[in-house]
Design brief:
single chain; globular; 2 domains; two-stranded parallel sheet; about 15% strand; alpha/beta; TIM Barrel
Length: about 300
């Protein structure tokens, strides 16, 4: 779960884009932490050959860089094609789309048990609404030989809304739609078993304040990582991944070897036995994203808005 904190805001790019090399080498967006080159929903079926040719030309030109590079294959067959490309080992891993307990084995068979790639599994099919199906998928993921390389589960908000015939309303968070209850259900199904989950994409580019508010709601549910559909969203998302000075100090006190079993700090009870996981995540967020000194409540009320 801690490793997933490195993802930050993952920029999604269709693999048809002409600037894959510039992005993949971190030349175009130097602050980018992770990128996902998509060959699935972001690419029309008629354009898939061009997307794969474009990706095949780009991979050998990727240079070592502090950037996590992923490809979202359209299917197990496309995954096999990408794995055969020159330069495929320069990828960090793959985002597997529309995963269920019925097709997970196909993807894993293509990868093989010793493939050195990190994986992200996307929950975005109708099965996501069924707690029994999700529990069965969880059991398969826990037993899979790639469990140690499974970075996170991604929640595919737009695909899930499509199953309901809905689209996120402008000016409202995903949590004001029926997906709010579903996301809470998925958190309860997977997170206690060590899986990180990412927040759904926010598709409106002209509402940065709403995006920031939704990221805070993601974090309040333990979701970390969010797809960005425009570079401007990366800064907004990752600003919310900073931690307050108060939380950073509390995390260090909780993790201290000299910490008592229970103590009072800033008029709050701190109990290392129950707060350690939070403290470890908070410490790593502070290391990766920094500490802010914004006043509590200064426009950052997680309960405000929809």
């Amino acid at each position: 779960m801690i490793r997933a904190l490195q993802l930050g805001a993952s920029l999604y790019l269709p693999a048809t884009r002409p600037d894959l090399v510039a992005v993949g080498n971190r030349d175009k967006y130097p602050a980018l932490r992770s990128v996902i080159f998509c060959t699935e929903d972001a690419v029309a079926g008629r354009d898939l050959p061009r997307a794969l040719d474009n990706l095949e030309a780009a991979l050998p030109r990727f240079e070592p860089a502090p950037l996590l590079r992923f490809v979202r294959p359209r299917s197990p067959a496309v995954l096999r094609r990408v794995l055969q490309m020159d330069g495929a080992r320069r990828l960090t891993g793959f985002v597997l789309p529309k995963v269920t307990r019925h097709n997970l084995g196909e993807y894993l068979a293509v990868l093989g048990p010793d493939a050195p790639f990190d994986l992200m599994v996307t929950l975005e099919t109708a099965e996501a609404f069924d707690p029994v199906e999700m529990a069965a998928l969880r059991a398969l993921l826990l037993a899979a030989p790639v469990r140690g390389r499974l970075l996170t589960l991604r929640i595919g908000g737009n695909d899930l809304l499509q199953h309901l015939g809905l689209r996120r309303p402008r000016g409202r968070s995903i949590y004001s739609t029926p997906l709010g209850l579903l996301i809470d259900q998925l958190v309860g199904t997977f997170r206690p078993h060590g899986f990180n989950l990412t927040g759904p994409v926010f598709e409106f580019l002209d509402r940065p304040a709403d995006l920031a508010r939704e990221v805070r709601k993601d974090l309040s549910r333990g979701l970390f990582g969010k797809a960005a559909v425009h570079p401007d969203q990366v800064r907004v998302i990752e600003a919310e991944y900073q931690v307050s000075g108060r939380d950073a100090a509390a995390a260090e006190r909780i993790l201290s070897d000299e910490a008592p079993a229970v103590f009072r700090l800033d008029d709050a009870m701190c109990e290392p036995a129950t707060h350690r996981a939070w403290a470890e995540i908070t410490r790593e967020r502070a290391r990766l994203y920094g500490v802010h000194d914004r006043c509590p409540g200064g426009g950052r009320d997680d309960q405000s808005g929809a």
